[in-house]
Amino acid sequence: MTDAAVSIAAAEASRAAVPSAFSRAVQAVTGRLVIIVPYLWLLFFFLAPFVIVFKISLSTTAIAMPPYTPAFSFEEGLAGLWSQLGELNFDNYLWLTEDRLYFNAYVSSLWIAAVSTLLALIVGYPIAYGMARAPASLRPTLLMLVILPFWTSFLIRVYAWIGILKPEGLLNQLLLATGIIDSPLIILNTHTAIFIGIVYSYLPFMILPLYSSLEKMDYSLVEAAQDLGCRPASAFWKITFPLSLPGVIAGCMLVFIPAVGEFVIPDLLGGSQTLMIGKTLWNEFNANRDWPVSSAVAIILLLLLVVPIMIFQHYQAKTQEAGR
């Protein structure tokens, strides 16, 4: 090869290297932007409201608009904020520990949410399993049927359950007509009605993660276990269920977290005697006009939900790293 040919080849290689380096730089910047966007989303729509609510929780109630006296202000900058830290008032949080109403509301909310999540898992797992094992051509239709309730207003669907569960409702009329019962069942304004409403409303949030995990599973593992003498039930608990655990955990979180702070379903289906933290928060904020206490209730509820999730995610990340 002549010197001229070598120089031409070198020039072409250098020209090819320039766009390659430029494209790598663009990809690096794009990758950083993709990471920054969710953090900005969390900053503006989670962290900023959290700081505002926390600020109100440290304030004192006042007959004014808004009905509280701020404990500190951001207008004086960091120096002024630092000088005001010694004057912070945590009486609202101490009040939550002194009044047993709030403790009972937290415990009742966690219990109702846990039972509802378990029921949603029991109902949703067979549905998701059936969808995953259905023919591939039928799966989009089944998936659409699961998502279909979201096309109707959530409030209208909850109101519809009032017409179904009330003593003279459709359910009691059907049971009386068939002779299964002699007198109407009292379901409305009970915990049973709350469980029905929560499971019905949040069931798609349980089914979709389960379906995602089960649909990607290699079912030849189950067939191999059965060929080796494993019974179907044993193969399910030893192979299918462990492989679907990521979907189970995701579905349980998606149901449990909003169910703890649920307000509409307990208010409409559970009646006035139902004690849940969502209703307690609404009463403090709107009926009693006690914004500082209601903000303290919201902060404690948020910590009860976020801290365990963060600990679990940290533990799961460590487990995945150890598995590698």
Task: Write up this protein.
The protein has 324 residues and is mostly helical. It has one domain: Orthogonal Bundle (MetI-like fold). The chain is 76% helix and 1% strand. The protein has a two-stranded antiparallel ribbon with strand order 1-2. A hairpin with a 6-residue loop joins strand 1 (60-61) and strand 2 (68-69). Helix 1 runs antiparallel to helix 14 (291-323) and helix 4 (100-133) crosses helix 8 (191-215). The mean pLDDT is 82.
Radius of gyration: 28 Å
In helices, the fraction of residues equals over 70%
CATH topology: MetI-like fold
Question: Structural class, judged by helices and strands?
Answer: mainly alpha
* Low-pLDDT segments: none
- The SSE order reads HEEHHHHHHHHHHHHH
Mean pLDDT: 82
End-to-end CA span: 50 Å
Shape: globular
CATH superfamily: MetI-like
Report the sheet with the most strands, covering strand number, pairing sense and barrel closure. 2 strands, antiparallel
Please work out how many helical segments DSSP would assign. Answer: 14
Tell me the count of domains. 1
Q: What's the arrangement of strands in the largest beta sheet?
A: 1-2
Number of strands: 2
Beta-strand percentage range: under 5%
- CATH C-level label: Mainly Alpha
What is the correct CATH architecture?
Orthogonal Bundle
Give short descriptive properties of this protein.
324 residues, mainly alpha, MetI-like fold, two-stranded antiparallel sheet, 14 helices, 2 strands, 76% helix, 1% strand, globular
